[in-house]
C-alpha cells in the first residue's frame, strides 16, 4: 500500500477508536498554517469587493465585476437642498427601482410613471376571505382547459364570469356569437391581434397606427420583435394609405378622452383597447360592439399581478389566429390566474347584484377617483403653472345617473415660462412621471398615474402644491 494510503488508514482507525490521531509531523503543521493564511487573505479580498473596492485598490465598477457605486443614490436618504435635489436628477433616478414602493419621508421620491393599481388594495383587504381561493395540488395540471373550445386554454368558469360582469355593467356585447380569447395581460393580446390581422404573405409589413396622444406601449410592443408582418407607422391622423391596423383606446390612455377610429378603409382593421371603459373611470354610455375589444383585469379590479386580459372577438378566423399566436408564444395562459380572477370577478358581480352587499367595487372606485380628481384640480389651480383637460358629464347606464369622467391618469401640461420639458422639471422635484414624447406629442406634457396608494397620492398633492 502506498504511504499516503497508510496515513489515511491510521487517521481513520484512530478516529474510530476514540484516540487522538498522531499528526504526521512539522510539515503537516506548516501546511495547515499556510492554508489558513490563504483563506484569510481570500476573505479579506472578497470583503473589499463586496464593499465596493476592486482588486489592487481599483475603483469598483472598473472591471464590470461589481455593482456600480453611482446607483447608491437611489437608496440614499433624500436630500433637502435644491442643489442636492438637482444632483439626484442628474444621476437619472431609476423608474423601475422606485416603482411600487411606499414613500418613507416627505422628501421621498414619488414614482407615478407606472399605472400600478395599488389604489384597490384597501378594498380587497376589506373583502377578506371572500376573495380567497385554494388550489389542490392536483388541480390545473393539464395544458388543456376545454379541448372542444376554439380557445382550448380558456377556463370555462373564467369565461362565464367575464360574460356575467360585462352583462352587469353593460359596457360590451357578449352574446354567444362572441369569442373570448384569454391572454397574459393586454400586451400579449395586442400582439395576438396584430398577428391575426396581418396578411402572412404581404409584400410589405402592415402599418400600425394610433391617433396622438397614443398609449406609449403601442410603438414598442409593435416593433420590439421587428416582425416582418407589421410595423409601427405613427399618428393615425397623418397616416396616408389604404392598408393599416388602427389602435383605438377609449377612454384614451393618457388623456382620458373618448375615442373613435380616425381612419376608414375596406383594407383597414381596427383594434379597440377598452381597458378603462369601466364605471369607476367613465360613464357607461352603451355596450361597445366592435370586431376586436381588449380588456384587462389590472384596471378593472386592480389585480395587475395576475397578468390576465381577455379579448372579445367577432370573427372566428381572427379568433383562431389569435389563439394560435398565444399557443406558439406561451402554450396557453396560466390556469391558476384564470381561476383566481374568475373568483375575483364573481365577488365583484355578487357585490352589485346581491341585496344587502356593502362591498361594491365600482362605487368604491368611483368615489375614490372623484375625490382624487377634486384634490388634483385644486392643487393645479393653486400652483398656477399647470393645466389639465376638461371632461363633459354624461348619463351612465350602469348607475342611471349623470356622471363625470375620472381617468386613471392625469394628462398634465406645464405652463411655466421657460420650462419646455415637464418630465425633467418634475423629476428635479423627485416626481417621476412619463413624458409626452412617449405618447407622440411635445415634452410640455406628462402622464401621471392616479392609481397609487393613498399615502403616495397625498404626498404627491403636497409636492405639487409646493411648486410655483
TrEMBL record:
Cofactor(s) this protein cannot do without: pyridoxal 5'-phosphate
GO function term, MF aspect, one: carbon-sulfur lyase activity
Xref: InterPro entries: Alliinase_C, Alliinase_N_sf, Ethylene_sulfur-biosynth, PyrdxlP-dep_Trfase, PyrdxlP-dep_Trfase_major, PyrdxlP-dep_Trfase_small
TM helices/strands, residue ranges: 27-50
Family annotation (Pfam families): Alliinase_C
Keywords (A to Z) from UniProt: Membrane, Pyridoxal phosphate, Transmembrane, Transmembrane helix
Residues of the Alliinase C-terminal domain: 110-466
GO terms (BP aspect): amino acid metabolic process
Highest taxon above the source species: Eukaryota
Family the UniProt entry places it in: Belongs to the alliinase family.
Record protein name field: (wild Malaysian banana) hypothetical protein
